[in-house]
Amino acid sequence: MGSQPDPPTTTCFGPDPRHSAFIKSDPESAGSTTTSAKTCYGPLLNFSSCQRETGDKLIPVTRPDKGGTNAVRSVPIRVNHFHVKFKSDKIIMHYDVDIKSEAPPKKGSAGKIPKSTLFMIREKLSSDNPSQFPASSIAYDGEKNIFSAVELPTGKFKVEFSEVEDTKVYSFLVTINLVKQLELQKLSDYFSGKLPCVPREIFQAMDVVMKENPARCMISVGRSFYPHQFSREDELGYGIIASRGIQQSLKPTAQGPSFCLDFSVVPFLKPVPVLEFLKEHVNRFNLDDFKNFRREVEAALQGLKVRVAHRPTGQKFIVAGLTSQETRDLSFLAEDPEGKDSPKKVMLVDYFKEKYGRDIIYKRIPCLDLGKNNRKNYVPMEFCTLVEGQRYPKENMDRNSTQKLKQESLPPPAVRENKICAMVRASNGPCGGGIIDSFGIDVNKNMTVVSARIIEPPGLKLGGSSRINVEKDKCHWNLVGKWVVEGIPVDRWAVIDFSAKDRYNRLDPNWFIPKFIQRCENLGIRMEEPLFYETANMLAFSNFSVLRGLLDQVSKKARGQIQILVCVMAGRHPGYCYLKWYSETVIGMVTQCCLSGPANKASDQYLANLALKLNAKLGGSNVELIERLPRFEGEGHVMFIGADVNHPGSRNPTSPSIAAVVATMNWPSANRYAARICPQAHRVEKIQNIGGMCLELVENYARANKVKPKKIVVFRDGVSEGQFDMVLNEELLDIKRAIQTENYCPTITLIVARKRHLTRMFPHGRNFNGNVPPGTVVDTTVVHLSEFDFYLCSHYGTLGTSKPTHYHVLYDEHGFSSDQIQKLTYNLCFTFARCTKPVSLVPPVYYADLAAYRGRMYYDAMVAEAESSASAASSSLSSSSSSSSYGAWLDERSYRWHGALEKENMMFFV
Fold it and tell me: Mean pLDDT of all residues in the chain?
């Protein structure tokens, strides 16, 4: 955007008679719109400048009709949206609350009050003054906002409390000021169409009110709530439990406010004594042989929160590490309280006996260091207990624990539905405690029943123009006796067998290779014998110089003309990331990895799936739609673009986010994609170079097809409703500015695809798997009141409860009807190259997700190589190397694919 000021940030979400995504805020043109779907705004810089100067702003388009009508059949289903009623004459009082400690912050401390303490202060305020601050009529968001059903006194209030009896008293100054009176009548006006924009402050207040009871009765983790108690059924092993909780949100829908609640399961550490946890968590842990387990113990405990039992306090401490000495040898200098005598040395064991009357049993192991800000605080492990509600990283779990968690997280639809309904009715749930009653809010505790439509699957074709008849219920198809549409001949390929030295999972090349060649031939993919078969060791994945040399040797042996290298691995290994990065960015070689176990079994389906991936990577076409996509039956090329951002894990504070944009390179088949990836600032969702990446892809399309696409449909993944404005007024403008010229002005439709939502669907009656069938569409009742959105379940759910994708059309220059955009989206889901069934997410977004993940693998590979290179150097050199490498990891060139792969628009990322 350069130095130009940002556009206004207010977004209208209400009913709007104007069917346009372009609204002028000039009072004289308040009722006017830009309606022409083919209007080109000329050079985008001028258009953008005009927007800034006049205050014009893009907002989401409104629904063009009353919803779709095309269907094979309509069926009633239940959706986990619970209708919320409210009293229009009620007023919610919104107060700003500022809480500060009377005591000045200690040196080196930021002075920020923990959220748990803030809740305790609010509760103490109510218990000290129940008539002025009635707990049943107050909701607190844990930060700066209090919402009350009654008028509260304002001003400054002193709150004193001790965490338990006979301990230090803490004093806080609470300042309360009235912000606004929120009239629920405005919410009624919005849903009746009298108010054009949703009153967001009222919705925020109601959302906080709905979360107040769970916040008081359960463990709050982000936006979810989990019970304090656990049972043996919850245990996953190794001191980890599967905690069953709830996720909830309040949404404005066509039926009015809807309360959406879903079942959630996360792995927590068991809130048990530290020594008990170590016995479960550390394999073969033995207190009598602690020295041999020290490294594992420290790794397991560092950073965890604990409470202490030797003195009465509710304070939580963070484990900094272990003491270097055993407990029996620890001592410290004790100051004379009166200051008369010089400090004297006191043994820790004696101190605990004299001060707290506690005998330390385990003296031959270290203590926990619970100090912070360079202050020592040594506490014996036997007096420490893990705090409840501490999440355990899923990636650190073993296979058995992961499988148990998966089973808990994916209950059958009927079980999930019962759990959701039970949670809505629970005393510790959002409707318990009588709090919402005080605000005049009532929740219908039965799920919303809506009429869903089942869309007919598209006609598909394979090689030889044969039409596929998809299976009626699952919409799957098989490849027995059939060919792919276009099989790329594989004349130059090779095999590296990394399992050759493995004792248990060694590949049988004399069995696998002929079977694989034969399966490819049966699918219409002509395949010669491999140029060579090389044996290697899985240890190469742990030594990057060895792996690099091996790949260079293969490329040299094939004279750089190899089409694809099949890499057989004995098991999964992190070094896989390096293989992909080096092959695809340095050498320019496409690879296909597989595991020796299933390769030796060589089942027909496994080999077919492997062949489909190989053919897609080499530019072949596996399956195509028979009919043109809806709305695009006429002349002119169409490009589909997918965009996504891959963010680092929550425990990683520095890694860049990876943005990816993919686009179709053929028409009308629209099933071959090229991709571009780019690193950007840590956890930034806006794709900072989306215009540049889209321009490259449009130019690639023109080189491949001798013509630029006249129409573009962009699917954007991973953004929340609060980020729609950013996508519309920043990313879309960036795309237009980059690709539009005076002579080229394609029409654009922009759609957001969301999987991270809480909506679930349950069919009336019971079918054979309890899920709604593929092609289920919902675009009434539980969708937005006026905007152009719909839920589509395009896949057959085989595990757990199917989650539909929520599609939201933000911008549309093609004039799609509800039926057309729903059918187009569903049909595209049948074109995914890797399988013979419709996928749950529209392929442009699916491929963008795969490409972004590929970029994440490249980053991991570069970091691992840098760390490996630095390990031989001194710590100072290592630190210098690490800091200098960070700039390289943000350099787009480090993620750029080899010219040979970019030129051919290879789909190697599938």
Answer: 90
Q: What is the pLDDT of residues 761-782, one digit of tens each?
A: 999 876 768 999 999 999 999 9
Question: Does the pLDDT of residue 881 top 90, yes or no?
Answer: no
Which three-class secondary structure state does DSSP give residue 386? strand
What single letter denotes the amino acid at residue 265?
V
Residue range 508-534: mean pLDDT, rounded: 98
Q: How far apart are CA 584 and CA 593, in angstroms?
A: 13
Q: Are 202 and 186 in contact (CB under 8 A)?
A: yes
Give me the amino acid identity at 896: R
What the block records as the tokens of 95 is 């107060």
Q: What is the model's pLDDT at position 19?
A: 38
Phi-psi region of 904 (alpha: psi -120 to 50; beta: other; left: phi over 0): alpha
Cα 98 versus chain centre, distance? 33
CA atoms within 13 A on the CB side of 342: 1
pLDDT higher than threshold 50 for residue 747: yes
Is residue 693 within 8 A of residue 897, CB to CB? The reply is no
Phi, psi of 66 (to 5 degrees): -95, 15
Largest CA distance in the chain: 100
Structure tokens at 467: 């039409």
pLDDT for position 890: 77
Token representation of residue 706: 């001798």
Q: Which residues does residue 389 pair with via DSSP β-bridges, in sequence order?
A: none
* Residues linked to residue 144 through DSSP beta bridges, in sequence order: none
- Rounded to whole angstroms, the Cα distance separating 168 from 630 reads 71
- Predicted model pTM: 0.90
No. of H helices and E strands in the chain?
22, 40
Give me the count of residues in the chain. 910
Comparing C-alpha atoms, which of 269, 361, 346, 345 is closest to residue 310? 361
pLDDT of residue 417: 96
- Residues 68, 783 contacting (CB under 8 angstroms): no
Of the candidates 330, 321, 371, the one whose C-alpha atom is nearest the C-alpha of residue 352 is 330
E strands present in 374-447:
378-380, 384-386, 441-443
564, 490 contact by CB (below 8 A):
yes
CA 507 to chain centre: 36
Q: Mark out the alpha helices in 558-634 (DSSP H runs).
A: 576-581, 596-601, 604-617
* Structure token digits, residue 192: 């009746």
Bond into 668 cis (ω within 30): yes
- Strand ranges of the sheet holding 673-680, from the earlier edge strand across to the other edge: 673-680, 657-664, 638-646, 711-717, 747-754, 805-812, 788-793, 776-778, 448-454, 73-79, 761-763
Extract the tokens encoding 153: 């006194």
Q: How far is the C-alpha of 564 from the C-alpha of 578, rounded, in Å? A: 17
Integer Cα distance of 149 and 91 in angstroms = 7
Give the residue among 442, 423, 441, 443 at the shortest CA–CA distance from 218.
423
**Do 317 and 114 touch, CB atoms closer than 8 A?**
no
Tell me the pLDDT tens digit for each residue of 25-83: 333 333 333 333 333 433 333 333 223 333 578 999 999 999 999 999 999 999 999 99
**539-551 confidence digits (pLDDT tens):** 999 999 999 999 9
Which residues, other chains included, contact 403 with Cβ-Cβ below 8 Å and sequence gap of 6+? Answer: none
Smallest Cα–Cα separation from 124: which of 78, 169, 180? 169
- In the three-class reduction of DSSP (H, G, I as helix; E, B as strand; rest coil), residue 591 is classed as strand
d(CA 544, CA 868): 8
> Tell me, what DSSP letter sits at residue 64?
S
DSSP 3-state of 409: helix
User: Which residues pair with residue 73 across a beta bridge?
Assistant: 454
Under 8 Å between Cβ of 761 and 778 = yes
Task: Point out which residues pair with 625 in neighbouring strands.
Answer: 460
Q: Which residues contact 740 (CB under 8 A, 6 or more apart)?
A: 40, 41, 43, 44, 746
**298-302, 579-583, 646-650: segment of lowest average pLDDT:** 646-650
